[in-house]
Amino acid sequence: MKTRRYIFLVCAFIITGFFIEGIYALSIINKTMGNQDSGKDNPLRNEQVKYERNQHSETVRKNTDSNTGIPFFMPQKGDTLDPGPAVYDHVNVLILGLDEYGERSDVIILANLNTDNGNLNLLSVARDTRVRARGKYTKINALIGMGGERMIMDKVEEITGLSIPYYITLDFKGFKKVIDVLGGVEMEVPFDMDYDDPQQNLHIHLKKGRQVLDGEKAIQFVRYRKGNRKGVGYINGDIDRISAQQQLIKALIAQKAKIKYLSKIDDIFLILKDYVKTNIEISDVNYYLDGLVKIRYEKTKTFTLPGESVYTNKTWYYIYDRQKTRELINDYFF
């Protein structure tokens, strides 16, 4: 139970950093784990390093450009880049916000942590991103229901060329309850948001203006994309929704990074243990702890997977740009 608690505390550290604020879990990690060894000589970690090296090599093989023979995420001739540090000095975690049925991921964020300097970069992936799975095109948010976390992790690896050994999933019910525990978040709603989808049990009704959103309204805010009437909603669809999600994250960090909220950590933990799923183990916690405590959330950079929305086969898809994705990954995620 103690080990399980440590793991969930680290998940709380990561998730609250993206959705609430890492300061809460950071204080508990420092208190409960103290100055433990970073784990670099841990035999379990040595096996993990071997695994990551093999995974990295396989990722390079799968993502080689058929025209140039160069992995699409690697630099062009004349550039220099040693792929080794990308395996050992960075760690990637896929954060998934699931709908109430756990079949679709409405929030997809790749978190890249530089364990040397604590730099944290976040890449939001549009839920409508077109991918090929089981012989046909589909949207990336459907993969969690088709093949679980591993399937969507494999696709994000394909898109980015990065090895992603870890995932954390958070149910929207848990997100809602955490927001309520923290007393809501003040946001500017840009226009009236009205949308009803009985099949998804999704009902969004927000009025324009600055207001404090409770957990239920915060969920509505991050899930809204369009209205029921044609021409109503975000002009850029899912990309504007991602921007709204990032605005909410920044608002939470700005408003809740206060000492008075430290008392809420136990309540947050009790919520997360029921709504979080992860493959992070205690040996991983020890190994990456040094990098985790260096994170400065105010310096975190947020990005969106480059691409554009395209209407094809009677469906709107987000088609990611391979070249721009390669450049973005090379510049910020290695």
From TrEMBL:
Superkingdom of source: Bacteria
Domain Cell envelope-related transcriptional attenuator: 104-255
Stretches that traverse the bilayer: 6-26
Keywords carried by this UniProt record: Membrane, Transmembrane, Transmembrane helix
Signal peptide: none
Keyword Transmembrane helix: yes
Family the entry assigns: Belongs to the LytR/CpsA/Psr (LCP) family.
Protein known as: Cell envelope-related transcriptional attenuator domain-containing protein
Native species: Clostridium thermosuccinogenes
